[in-house]
Amino acid sequence: MIRKIISFLTLYLLALNLTFAENLDFSRKSDLEILQLTRVVSLNKTFTGLVVAHNIGGEKLLARVSQGLVDNTIQKKRKILDNGVEYIHSGHEIREYFPNEKVVKIYNNALPVFPNFLLNDPNEVLRYYNLLRYGSSNTSVADKNSFVFELKSKDKLRWGVKFWLDSQTGLLLKLHYLDQNSNILKKELFAEISIEPSNKMDLKFSSPDSNNWRKIYISTFADEKDGLVYNKKLNNGFVFVKCLDSKVYDFKKTQDSNFIHHQCLYSDGVAIVSAVTQNRTRPIRVFQRTNGCMSEKVGLKGNKPMYVGGCVPAKTIQYFFNKLSVE
After folding, report:
1. pLDDT class of 36 with cuts at 50, 70, 90
2. Structural contact between residues 174 and 158, judged by C-beta atoms closer than 8 angstroms
3. Considering only CA atoms, which of 315, 293, 228 is closest in space to residue 263?
């Protein structure tokens, strides 16, 4: 009997050690290393899953998301479940497929896409956020064990971000954007996920005739000096990222190919602010609002329209609106 008990305990401890050996030891990593791991794994890990996104006060979005290697390049495929629209992300390019219209919209993109949420060097992030560690989560996320962290804002110009990392791979599983009172403003999470799946994934658009569809180039990276006047680095920690010129295209309306939106992006590495001007004056509706994590303002600067918006507090949007000017 004693031998059986000893044998059982030996096997139990061995299994326990193997379980722990499979988990990452986050306690040995510095704050910077945690953020670097989060970004690198989210950008490079192979996975497929169901993502739920919900900006509080708005509609929930469900999407099938897969990521993996295609021709030695990491590619991400997203399919929005309620309308069937598919997106293929490769490098800085996004292709948006509309099966009913047989149209492909092509964009340049400088923004992170879930599960990545870190844009710039994580070292800069820690100048404006404190990284809090909550340890192992009491509940699973998409049937995965996870460790919980929070980037706590050091001021009132940016929201906090609570995030859950898979215990074994470090892949980000869930995000909560939080206000100063820890109220949830926006959620992004995996409801289902398979990491490093054994079955081969289809990371290309599913329609075989899509190469013959009409292609519309919506946005391209642009001259940063065209349209907006600003400093490269503002004293609130947000730095200039990129500018894009975007066509305004609607299937249901007659298009004016000469009407361009000039958009410039600013970020502290987590929060992102977008400022948009037009190359010609058109009627606008002046407003300022906050919904969930999103704050927006549209108004006139020098008798020219300007939009400023982002997943940041309203005072941050007002700061940018006051600082930026339109040429």
Report:
1. very high
2. no
3. 228
DSSP for 222-238, written as a single string: --TTSSEE--SB-TTS-
Q: How far apart are CA 81 and CA 24, in angstroms?
A: 33
Instruction: Find the largest Cα–Cα distance for the chain.
Output: 89
The pTM of this model reads: 0.86
On whether the 221-326 domain is CATH 3.30.200.100, my answer is yes
Query: Which part of the chain is CATH 3.30.200.100?
Result: 221-326
For 7, the 3-state DSSP assignment is: helix
Bridge partner residues of 291 (DSSP): 294
Out of 3.40.50.1380, 2.60.120.200, 3.20.20.60, 2.50.20.10, which CATH number does the structure's domain 21-195 have? 2.50.20.10
Nearest to 122 by CA among 38, 232, 240, 27: 38
Average of per-residue pLDDT across 179-185: 96
Nearest to 164 by CA among 180, 150, 178: 150
What does the block give as tokens for 308? 């400023």
Return the closest-CA partner of residue 270 out of 73, 123, 61.
123
Quick one: which of 118, 115, 126, 114 has its CA closest to 271? 118
- Looking up tokens 């994590």 gives 293
